[in-house]
Design goal:
By secondary structure, the chain is α+β, with helices and mostly antiparallel strands. The protein has one domain: Jelly Rolls, CATH 2.60.120.620. The chain contains 8 helices and 11 strands. Strands 1, 2, 3, 5, 6, 9 and 11 form a 7-stranded antiparallel sheet that branches. The chain has a 4-stranded antiparallel sheet with strand order 4-10-7-8.
Length: 309
């Protein structure tokens, strides 16, 4: 939404399809501390067209491991280079998440390395392995104490079509029960491992079991009130995502990176050059930019385990 309060037609249509809590967080920039994960997931469930899709979101929203942030991963010069590139050459094909214009510029591996320089490029390429090792150590430290997910009941005829007579209301108690139970488990686990970055006991095996992390896609996205103002809640399809802030949060209004982890909805505001790393389980969004321009570099990685010897 730009300063006159008017969005483009594509994003007006997208906003009209959002459930109230989703709309409040993403479009209206409501403080996420005032919204529970249960409320958000219950509302998001009304937007799904199948019980399987809703179950996947529910499971993902209750994963224990959280994103990590590397401060100053990219230099100010590299950030400026990428901003200039997307300003002058961005594409506006339909986005895979919301089918609205992307306003982004794709880079091949070689193009990205040339744009930001070998040193910064290699620093970013090391992040997936570092993240996966931290994730694995955290899982070992908690000894897999997380309860098995509650499966949603089978209800014939429920398709969640927009405007359909069938209602997802039968699923709501199960969502709330599942999330409440997971929040209790997470509180217990946090007493064992309060941070993904803390040192773990020496007996925990930390050998890198992920031999191959392949950069599958990289692109720079541009957000502004009168072009692409937001990105709705979604999950990424690749195993690891690197999201680098190419502009400081003080340079624009709104535009918060939102993430669902540790039983809460968090704002992950960053400085220019800071990189957030997360896995495909993170349910996340970007709230509407109201003033200024927000830029980010996105890198998607697939992962294959080390071959057994």
């Amino acid at each position: 939404m730009h300063e006159t309060g008017i969005m483009t037609a594509e994003f007006e249509a997208l906003a009209s399809r959002m459930a109230p809590t989703h709309r409040a967080l993403v479009l209206e920039n409501v403080d996420p501390s005032t919204v529970t994960v249960s409320e958000l997931m219950a509302d998001l469930s009304t937007e799904f067209r199948s019980a399987d899709a809703m179950q996947q979101f529910l499971d993902a929203a209750t994963k224990v491991f959280k994103p990590i942030v590397l401060r100053g991963a990219l230099s100010p010069e590299a950030c400026a280079t990428l901003r200039r590139a997307v300003d002058s050459n961005r594409r506006m094909d339909p986005d895979s998440v919301d089918q609205c214009p992307e306003h982004h510029l794709s880079f091949s591996r070689e193009q990205l390395e040339m744009a930001i320089g070998p040193r910064d490029f290699q620093r970013l390429l090391r992040l997936p392995r570092d993240y996966l090792n931290l994730e694995r150590k955290a899982m070992l430290a908690t000894r897999c104490t997380q309860h098995a997910p509650v499966r949603l009941p089978e209800v014939d005829g429920i398709h969640f079509e927009s405007g359909a007579d069938d209602s997802p209301e039968p699923f709501m108690p199960h969502i709330r029960k599942h999330l409440q139970r997971q929040e209790e488990v997470q509180q217990q686990q946090q007493s064992t491992s309060s941070s993904a970055n803390e040192m773990l006991p020496e007996e925990v095996e930390t050998e890198d079991e992920y031999a191959v992390q392949t950069l599958e896609e990289s692109f720079v996205r541009r957000y502004s009130a009168d072009t692409r103002p937001l990105n709705p809640f979604h999950r990424d399809r690749y195993r690891v995502t690197i999201n680098v802030a190419l502009s400081a949060h003080e340079d624009y209004g709104g535009g918060h990176l939102l993430g669902v982890f540790d039983g809460h909805i968090h704002r992950m505001d960053r400085s220019e050059g800071d990189a957030t790393v997360h896995n495909s389980d993170l349910v996340h969004a970007v709230s509407a930019v109201t003033t200024g321009t927000r830029y980010s570099l996105i890198m998607f990685f697939s992962v294959r385990p080390r071959p057994k010897r």
